[in-house]
Design a protein that fits this description.
This protein is mainly alpha-helical. 59% of the residues lie in helices and 5% in strands. A three-stranded antiparallel sheet has the order 3-5-4. The chain has a two-stranded antiparallel sheet with strand order 1-2. Helix 8 (181-195) runs antiparallel to helix 9. The chain starts with 14 loop residues before the first helix and ends with a helix.
Length: 370
């Protein structure tokens, strides 16, 4: 990995880095520790939730503005994006799903270009820039407040060779010493963002590349976390980690430490989310199975929907949205919702050509009466 003047990027392994890597080795690889994620019937639900979260926040880091609820509904129901911001989010979601299906392959420049095309199609000011290396040196990273140039990336004529070297590094041809897989994933993120090979969409592509390599190396939990959610909480620190590296003799330790902290916080956030959802699921299950007569009547997807409906009176559900949320086919989703309607726990309405289901008022009382 080289800076634009040809000098190498360097890093050190202080105790803070080693401590974080040890923690992440225990938490993000090896045996599944969380009970909900160890059960195959709930894994799809949590994975889809994570992919949606990463798609939304990664897009927001690039300037997308739309409500989270509207974005989630668009993805789950497969609705065609109506705005540029929605298109960006949908592209990110599709790209995240795509990379998780290609972790067995070696990285090539062609694959990075294809990934960039998925991420940016229909969102760039210059449509010709989609899936193509930038064709000029007019691209830079500027301070949004002062318009000061913060990073002047390598010349565009150097990009094909730099892309080849990036893939060479990713495919384990070098270095000839052991490099911790998560450090390598972080450095791939850093290098692509540093090279800034595209007119736009560099950050999204760099973060997707991090996921690709981390999952490829067996860090299965990375599929379930959103690093962009944590970066978005403190975007200035994200930018500073890049700047500190460039202003301190290409020392990437700053960026490595920042990203390890981001990953730990994302895992902690997932832990809190799973714990909360599990308790909510248990409450809904208790309400649903309190009667001997109805015990075993509802599956885990139906219980999860009821739990959500208890929190969101009047919320609407559809066959497409329910199927996308849990990763099941249309017929399964249809059976689930119609079963809940038959039990009096959802109300069905026809809206144009669509059938929608709503959480009724007094849902808790209805559950108690079953």
């Amino acid at each position: 990995m080289l800076a634009k003047e040809g000098s190498p990027f360097v890093f050190t392994m202080p105790s803070a880095v080693l401590s974080e890597l040890h923690y992440l080795d225990k938490q993000a690889a090896g045996n599944i520790a969380w009970k909900p994620l160890s059960e195959s019937h709930t894994q799809k639900t949590y994975l889809i939730r994570s992919l949606i979260e990463e798609a939304i926040t990664s897009s927001q880091l690039e300037g997308a503005t739309t409500t989270r609820d509207k974005a989630k509904a668009m993805i789950r129901e497969g609705r065609t994006p109506e705005t540029l911001d929605e298109r960006m989010i949908m592209n990110n979601y599709r790209a995240m799903r795509q990379i998780l299906g290609h972790t067995e392959e070696r990285l090539t420049p062609e694959y990075i270009l294809a990934l960039h095309k998925i991420l940016t199609e229909g969102t760039l000011d210059n449509p010709q820039a989609v899936g193509r290396l930038r064709q000029s040196d007019s691209i830079g990273v500027y301070d949004e407040r002062t318009n000061e140039l913060l990073h002047d990336p390598p010349k565009f004529k150097e990009l094909p060779e730099r892309m080849e070297k990036l893939c060479h590094f990713a495919n384990d041809y070098e270095p000839d010493y052991f490099l911790h897989p998560l450090v390598k994933a972080i450095l791939l993120h850093f290098q692509l963002a540093y090279d800034h090979p595209f007119e736009d969409g560099n950050g999204r592509t760099a973060r997707a590349l991090f996921y690709w390599y981390a999952v490829k190396q067996g860090y299965w939990l990375m599929e379930y976390i959103s690093i962009s959610s944590e970066i978005k909480k403190a975007p200035v620190k994200y930018g500073e980690a890049f700047l500190c590296t460039e202003t301190d003799e290409n020392d990437t330790t700053y960026f490595i430490l920042h990203q390890l902290d981001v990953i730990r916080k994302a895992i902690n956030g997932l832990d809190e989310y799973i714990t909360r959802r599990f308790h909510e699921y248990e409450e809904a299950e208790r309400l649903l199975t309190g009667s001997v007569r109805v015990r075993g009547l509802f599956n885990h997807r139906q219980i999860d929907l009821v739990r959500d409906a208890l929190k969101n009176p009047g919320k609407s559900y559809s066959f497409i949205g329910h199927g996308a949320t849990h990763g099941v086919v249309h017929q399964t989703a249809r059976t689930d919702l119609l079963g809940l309607e038959k039990a009096g726990l959802l109300v069905k309405r026809k809206e144009g050509s669509r059938i929608m289901f709503y959480a009724p008022a007094g849902l808790r009382e209805r559950l108690g009466a079953l």
